[in-house]
TrEMBL record, chain A:
One of its GO terms (biological process) is cell division. Keywords: Cell cycle, Cell division. Transmembrane segments: none annotated. Prevents the cell division inhibition by proteins MinC and MinD at internal division sites while permitting inhibition at polar sites. This ensures cell division at the proper site by restricting the formation of a division septum at the midpoint of the long axis of the cell. Belongs to the MinE family. It comes from Methylobacterium variabile. This is Cell division topological specificity factor. The lineage of its organism: Bacteria, Pseudomonadati, Pseudomonadota, Alphaproteobacteria, Hyphomicrobiales. InterPro entries: MinE, MinE_sf. It holds the Pfam family MinE.
TrEMBL record, chain B:
One of its GO terms (biological process) is division septum assembly. Belongs to the ParA family. MinD subfamily. One of its GO terms (molecular function) is ATP binding. It comes from Methylobacterium variabile. ATPase required for the correct placement of the division site. Cell division inhibitors MinC and MinD act in concert to form an inhibitor capable of blocking formation of the polar Z ring septums. Rapidly oscillates between the poles of the cell to destabilize FtsZ filaments that have formed before they mature into polar Z rings. It comes from the Bacteria. This is Septum site-determining protein MinD. Pfam families: CbiA. ATP binds at residues 11-18. Keywords: ATP-binding, Cell cycle, Cell division, Nucleotide-binding, Septation. SUPFAM superfamilies: P-loop containing nucleoside triphosphate hydrolases (SSF52540). Residues 5-225 form the CobQ/CobB/MinD/ParA nucleotide binding domain.
Length: 89, 271
């Protein structure tokens, strides 16, 4: 069995699906199509930015759709010194 | 009150014209009065797919510019007397279509018919935005393939921005028709599945039209597939789509070409 036949057992469609999800999340922001994830990202950022200085690049918002439950993941990297200052204030 | 549908996709060659002809004929077969309008100025093809290419005298641009009356340009189908075609011009370019002229023609069509189905040109330029401009319902035609899905995503963005309904803050119904689908290849992981495309585009599914020889046979003859081979898998998919457009609840299945008992047993249920 060579590498190709090993890969083809998984199928190429999951690769297509993953490439599209990543590409379209990016393009929707660029062309101003406001989908739920993009809107949530903006609003969550605005709330947190009121209290903590955050780097726009270090924010990840992901949505996993499931049959029964969908999960929203918000991952924000906070700079250490800013958090400390906020806590002591 | 007539409903205006735009059949659009972004990408070319995915089945917009086939879908326009099939939905138009299926609605007429269900007793509705329908006009199919070709917006692909300079590259008209709906006339050919409908088998009316030798009957074109006046076209959409003649009517838009006031050189012909709407009734002079409409071509009534010879097989279905409630189905009409408004052809595009083959010699002019899309700049001859004015915003006001198109609005006036769509307004006149709304008064005459139950359904007006606009066949959009490919692309995201003026021709495509004019075709979608006055729509109440958008049918996005997509193949289970990366470039088609990407372009459909762009078109969905345009539908939410450039249509009259979107600008007024009204709801524009959007539906997906997935064409050239092969359940076997999807099952083997060689083709995006229905659920994959639905999750990415997040618009409701109107029909899944399986890959079929019948589509080419019908276009060879200039007859919509729902007329030419009513029992074929694509024809049944379009007939179900039409029942859903009319508000009926129809179980979503991917019609299969096999008519044997075995084939029926294995008819795959879609999401």
């Amino acid at each position: 069995m060579n590498l190709l036949s090993f890969l083809s057992r998984r199928g190429t469609a999951p690769v297509a699906r993953e490439r599209l999800q990543i590409l379209l999340a990016h393009e929707r922001t660029a062309f101003g199509r406001s989908d739920l994830v993009a809107v949530l990202r903006e609003e969550i950022l605005a709330v947190i930015a009121k209290h903590v200085a955050i780097d726009q690049e270090k924010v990840k918002v992901t949505m996993e759709r499931g049959d029964a439950v969908s999960t929203l993941g918000v991952d924000i990297e906070l700079p250490d010194n800013k958090v400390a200052r906020l806590a002591s204030a | 009150m007539a409903k205006v549908i735009v059949v659009t996709s972004g990408k070319g060659g995915v089945g917009k014209t086939t879908t326009t002809a099939a939905l138009g004929a299926a609605l007429a077969q269900a007793g509705q009065s329908v006009c199919v309008v070709d917006f692909d100025v300079g590259l008209r093809n709906l006339d050919l797919i409908m088998g009316a290419e030798r009957r074109v005298v006046y076209d959409l641009i003649n009517v838009v510019q006031g050189d012909a009356k709407l009734t002079q340009a409409l071509i009534r189908d010879k097989r279905l007397d409630t189905l009409s075609l408004l052809p595009a011009s083959q010699t002019r370019d899309k700049d001859a279509l004015t915003d006001d002229g198109v609005a006036r023609v769509i307004g006149e069509l709304r008064e005459k018919f139950d359904w007006v189905i606009c066949d959009s040109p490919a692309g995201i330029e003026r021709g495509a935005t004019l075709a979608m401009r006055h729509a109440d319902i958008a049918v996005v035609v997509t193949n289970p393939e990366v470039s088609s899905v990407r372009d459909s995503d762009r078109i969905i963005g345009l539908l939410d921005a450039k249509t009259e309904r979107a600008e007024k803050g009204e709801r524009l119904e959007k539906h997906l028709i997935l064409t050239r689908y092969d359940p076997g290849r999807a099952e083997r992981g060689e083709m995006l599945k229905i659920d994959d495309v639905l999750e990415i585009l997040s618009i409701p599914l109107l029909a899944v039209v399986p890959e079929s020889e019948e589509v080419l046979k019908a276009s060879n003859l200039g007859s919509p597939v729902t007329l030419n081979a009513p029992q074929s898998a694509p024809a049944r998919a379009y007939a179900d789509a039409v029942r859903r457009l009319k508000g009926e609840t129809v179980a979503m299945i991917v019609p299969s070409e096999k008519r044997s008992l075995l084939g029926k047993l294995f008819t795959r249920r879609a999401a």
